[in-house]
Automatic annotation (TrEMBL):
Biased composition annotated in UniProt, kind: Acidic residues: 132-147
Top EC class for this record: isomerase
Amino acid composition bias (Polar residues), ranges on this chain: 151-166
Enzyme Commission no: 5.2.1.8
The name this protein goes by in its record: peptidylprolyl isomerase
Region annotation Disordered: where it falls in the sequence: 117-219
Pfam families found in the cross-reference section: FKBP_C, NPL
Amino acid sequence: MLWSGTVTESTPLTMEAQFDLRITGASLGEKAKKGERVFLVVTHEDFVAEEPRTAQVCVLTAGSIENQYLDLVLDEGEPVSFAVKGSGTVHLTGYFVIDEDGSDQADQIMDSIGMFEDESDDESFEGPSIEAIDDSDEDMSSDEEANESSITQSILDQVRAKQSSVENKKRKVPEATTPSPAKKKQKTEQSPKQETPKKSPKKQESPKGTPQQTRVQKLRGGTVAEILTPGQGSATASKGQKVTVKYEGRLAKNGKKFDAGKFSFKLGKGEVIKGMDVGIEGMLMNEKRKITIPAAQGYGNQKVGDIPAKSDLVFEVTMLRMK
């Protein structure tokens, strides 16, 4: 189910996706001035820091780089705002993500966006003309600053409301859901030298705050997962689940950072590099791992962006959500 949106410097795009949405491309409008650089930025909710964050998505240049492939996944109900720095218009395209087991989800999407059909049939409904956009770009004043401030405040209000909703849901979860991991953790912290039951040797090897005893897993294909921060609960990430992670990627040979952010994907479905699929499988909620991926399970002989060919990669990944 296709989706599209338009962003200009005077008219940011603020939204909450009614369904999971994947944005796959950004293109520059035809009236952009040749040689001008147009910056697309996004303000989104940071689930870890619990505050809005603004990040640059891409830079488009009229006459040279006018199209950019994206892979931004917005969760259902997640508040975001796209803005443009520069006089050009940026067109965003993507599609709604429909789960394999959601037979009537497509019908729900059609019903929810039926208003667009009504607007297109209404002769009085007209989108902004290119001339109007150009005129508005030239008239930059304090009104624009007030508009930007109101948009930022709107995002803040939406984020706080969602955080409050998440906290309320957490309070409703009975404490009896995760008693076993908590008890095992207390035993290892109180008496590291005490003999522990044979059923849980791994807990004895990884007491909190002891880096040299951090558990290391050698996975298939040569990928290595090192647990930096233990997770919570007993549910683990498994193939076919939709997971949301926060990550930071660096080159293994020199530690150079090449990417960071938050995104969602289906585990084990080939939507990410092989080493990421293998390294994330089995993670607990809020667990943080350092995943070292050999080139064969990364990008292989391909050069991708700032990543040279045949590069081993290191990711620090935190599990934020799984369903």
